[in-house]
């Protein structure tokens, strides 16, 4: 009879079902607020992380990416795809899973679904950035692109920034209908709009979260007045942007990790040395955020590995002592570390039995 795997061989695994149960158990607005705080805390210690632009494998229809980082004690990575054409085929545009490991032993310590977690962490990061950059007293947000990420974005801005009204627009009215329906009862005033122009009327924050594998112009320069904060989520691949270049030239631009954002973000439209501010420096108090009421601030978000690392660590803490995970027999870990083959050989008995 083969010996049972050791304790270290079992890796806690959070399935999609358990992630949903965990978030309902805690409450989604609390999760979004906690995630914003955890991501902010990790941005504050930004210099000590290993950082690299994500490793992207592009095809004509989408991208598959690996996003690694480490804080010296814990290593993490996310696998994520982006396939704008998927939605029309009944599939998600973005799916993901991720892993944390112990730097000391190299053994994994968490495996988790991250499709839902990416939506949560993206929304929490956006709202955390807006907490530092949006005009004071902002209450209304335009939400352009009403797909999978959109409700999460709206709820994060409510929970973290105090937004009480959202103005929705999507080229597909059915997406706007669904988003509005899902937000009913959330406490947000929801206004369905027929154009981007209508959506941004009276909004102090504009979130663009559309999916298109090409340069798109969701906002043109004449649409954007002074003093707003733009949270640009959907432009996150080479050749995939949402804002007209002239808006960028009028804005103070904040980014996650410049070497990645210059390849993937809105700023791929600008000269490679165009001045941008790293968000972590604002959070650490090294650089001022919004200068005045008239400035246009732009968070050119592409999603960075440290946000996923923070989200996975949050999940690892949150599942402790709960039933919201299972244990996977994932690591071959014989009692005698050199007897990997012996462990394999003994397993023959259980096959024969
Ligand atoms: N920055 C980040 O960290 C981050 C994280 C996750 C996803 N994303 C990106 O955000 C985008 C949205 O993701 P999703 O999962 O919600 O995608 P989705 O396919 O579910 O939704 C996209 C929506 O945009 C709409 N749309 C497309 N073109 C439009 C236009 N011109 N005007 C208005 N609406 C338009 C579509 O009809 C669709 O409803 C994707 O591009 C994705 O890659 C970024």
From TrEMBL:
Superkingdom field: Bacteria
InterPro entries per the UniProt record, alphabetical: NAD(P)-bd_dom_sf, ODC_Mu_crystall, ODC_N
Annotated protein name in UniProt: Ornithine cyclodeaminase
Organism: Paracoccus homiensis
